[in-house]
Design goal:
mainly alpha; 14 helices; about 65% helix; about 0% strand; globular
């Protein structure tokens, strides 16, 4: 597997010692995942097993039901989502997992599993100190996912794939955050480390998704999310959708008037988006966010 290097330039270190400590940790983590070792403590492996089952054309629905049935809390969440207003258009409740999975579809099942996993991380005693940044990362991920889906509907890209890519765009940051817990000198109190993570997390996230067997287009998009000069071979692609969505998600979370700065970001030009287009996208994404919390049970 290819070696990992940071995107962009790391911020200035508080002290040379701070920078050295931060750089050594990130390099060791990058080398580890590059070798194919993904070690994410407290992260339920049900997320990976569900992804594998849903991606395998030979796997039966019964196998997916069996995997989910082994995790009662997630099973209950899926049943709740399937009976929510977002999915229960017929007003006929479902009471078994098989029917719930069929009603929800693959994207909603995978997304709900990811939401469940992040919630378990937030509740883990060892990660309690990081509960707030984990929550902030999750809220950002939901926002990016919602915008990705809205933009994808204007393109040839599958909206469900775009949604899941947005939901997973911060997996590298999540990985670093979890692995940094308990390290000497409290790495997240080191400004150099926080700044460096922004440069390293896309490549780490890409490698984690590759190890987990996610689609190449998704992994590539996560790895290139900070490449404002990205230019695909033909029309705007999944990477362009993610880049634009991350920028717009920042705007969406801003208090007061929304100011959209598209300058220097090639992906906006590839779509031909105007400020009015972006405003409409944000309006639709904001509308979706309310039902997303109910859908994902978070």
């Amino acid at each position: 597997m290819a070696s990992i290097a940071p995107s962009g330039r790391p911020g200035q270190a508080s002290t040379p010692e701070d920078r050295t400590t931060a750089l050594q940790f990130l390099r060791s983590l990058a080398a580890e995942v590059s070798r194919g070792t993904v070690n994410l403590p407290c992260f339920p492996d049900v997320v990976i097993r569900i992804r594998e089952a849903l991606a395998d054309p030979e796997a039966s629905l019964a196998q997916t039901v069996k995997i989910l049935g082994a995790e009662p809390r997630l099973a209950a969440r899926l049943l709740q989502a399937a009976n929510s207003a977002a999915f229960n258009h017929s007003s006929k409740p479902v009471t078994d997992l098989r029917a719930a999975i069929t009603r929800l579809g693959h994207r909603a099942v995978q997304s709900s599993a990811m939401a469940f996993a992040v919630q378990q991380l937030r509740l883990a005693p060892a990660l309690r100190a990081n509960a707030k940044p984990l929550h902030q990362l999750w809220e950002e991920s939901i926002s990016v996912a919602s915008i990705c889906q809205v933009i994808a509907r204007r393109t040839h890209v599958n909206p469900d794939e775009a949604f899941l890519t947005g939901l997973l765009h911060g997996i590298g940051r999540l990985y670093v955050m979890v692995r940094a817990v308990g390290k000497q000198n409290n790495l997240y109190a080191n400004p150099s480390f926080v700044e460096m993570v922004e440069g390293w997390h896309p490549a780490i996230g890409k490698t984690v998704l590759e190890n987990w067997g996610f689609a190449e287009a998704m992994s590539d998009a996560v790895g290139s999310q900070a490449d404002y000069d990205h230019a695909g071979r033909f029309e705007a692609d999944l990477t362009d959708i993610l880049i634009v969505s991350i920028v717009l998600a920042v705007v969406l979370r801003q208090p007061g008037p929304q100011r959209i700065d598209m300058s220097g970001i090639h992906s906006f030009q590839r779509f031909g988006f105007t400020a009015q287009d972006c405003t409409e996208i944000l309006k639709h994404a904001q509308y979706q966010l309310g039902s997303l919390h109910a859908e994902l049970g978070c």
